Amino acid sequence: MASSGLSEEALIFQGRLMPVIQIQDLTKIYRSAAGAVTALDHVNLRVRKGEIYGIIGYSGAGKSTLIRCVNMLEQPTSGSIKVNGQEITSLNETQLRVARRKIGMIFQHFNLLSSRTVFENVAFPLEISGVPKAQIKEKVTKLLGLVGLSDKAGAYPSQLSGGQKQRVGIARALANDPIVLLCDEATSALDPATTDSILALLKDINRRLDLTILMITHEMKVISEICDSVAVLEQGKVIEEGLVIDVFTQPQHPTTRRFVQTIIQTDIPEHIKKPLLQRGRGQIIRVSFIGDAAAEPVISTLVKKFAVDINILYGNINQIQDTPFGMLIIECLGSQDNCRLALQHLRRQGLRIEVLKNVE
Ligand SMILES: Nc1ncnc2c1ncn2[C@@H]1O[C@H](COP(=O)(O)OP(=O)(O)OP(=O)(O)O)[C@@H](O)[C@H]1O
Which residues does UniProt assign to the signal peptide (predicted)? Predict the structure, then answer.
């Protein structure tokens, strides 16, 4: 059963599981006199309708190349990219111009036209699409309301803050009612408070318009705050991919772990770990929990039901969007049988159990 409560069949029927972006075996090699650089190496990704999908990676991982291939600002060397079912790598110039209207994009440095007002910047893509003036006025007014800039219609970009400029960028990207919004490091040039407000706006637009968003970033905070799914890119390859909550709670690849560690403590710090494992008394166990289980009184139940004593040695609770998760390091003191039954009970509650040190 999917998290919405609907069966997978119902979601497929509604088109919600149909990938809006499907990338298969995408490879991009830049060739120059200096040699060849493989920026993307057989990348496969599926972005579902209505989700916010984040791609994270260090500098040079291939993020910009990947997002620019999705609207063909960069020509792939090989592979397939389908947007809303349409193969975009084989379109001619005219077809591509039409397809691009449905692929909105916002940029790190906003890319606004400095000689045009806020209103005129947002109107620009509509003028190019040949929309009549009266309709443009109505649409731009609505979009400026959506991004909270109704009072800035007559201002020029130079008169705006970074956050306001990005709001104009978002309104402009939404002008042609895109199927997907591409965000190229959309908050990297902004301070933390402005970043939060732009992320909140993107989430709001995603929910209100059911708009699929693909974003690239080098900040795990961006992923944790608004993304549903994430892919980690390294040297042009996807090294890990999945729902954000799964990747955060069980990162597999060392690079992913390093990204996760930038915002949450998932490993036990070494200075705490060493003395813990030297304790000679009972079994030492790491209990990891997600969602509702985080609110259950698991420890008191163990003590009551299994005649064991529990020492809590270390612990933390974090939250990704609405889902709490965390871990406890506990010491279980009691007979071997009782400790074994206690662990079985924890596993049956859906908790992840890892024995760090066994009873001597
Ligand atoms: N036009 C180009 N010509 C040659 N090599 C390029 C070109 N653009 C990018 N590259 C190389 O391709 C690789 C991926 O670059 P890309 O800009 O996609 O990475 P990135 O993850 O977006 O990095 P950053 O966050 O620094 O922008 C890098 O090794 C880069 O040097």
Answer: none
Task: Tell which one of 26, 28, 37, 216 to mutate to probe ligand 1, the residue whose CB is within 8 A of the most ligand atoms.
Answer: 37
Domain 270-357: top CATH class: alpha beta
Beta carbon of 334 within 6 Å of any ligand 1 atom: no
Q: Which CATH superfamily is domain 10-102+178-261 in?
A: P-loop containing nucleotide triphosphate hydrolases (3.40.50.300)
- Is 107 close to ligand 1, i.e. is its CB under 6 Å away? no
- Atom 7 (ligand 1) nearest CA: 30
Q: Is 61 in the pocket of ligand 1 (CB under 6 A)?
A: yes
Ranges in the chain, pLDDT < 70: 1-17, 266-267, 279-280, 292-296, 359-360
pLDDT, tens digit, for every residue of 116-159? 999 999 999 999 999 999 999 999 999 999 999 999 999 999 99
pTM equals: 0.86
The reply to whether 270-357 shares the fold of 10-102+178-261 is no
Structural domain boundaries in the chain: 10-102+178-261, 270-357
Nearest-angstrom CA–CA distance, 206 and 156: 27
Of 66, 62, 20, 53, the residue nearest 223 (C-alpha) = 53
The CA distance from 216 to 242, in Å, is 15
Report whether residue 59 contacts ligand 1, using a CB cutoff of 6 Å.
Answer: yes
Atom of ligand 1 nearest to the CA of 216: 22
Give the separation between CA 157 and CA 115, rounded to whole angstroms: 8
Residue found by looking up tokens 């990162």 in the block = 251
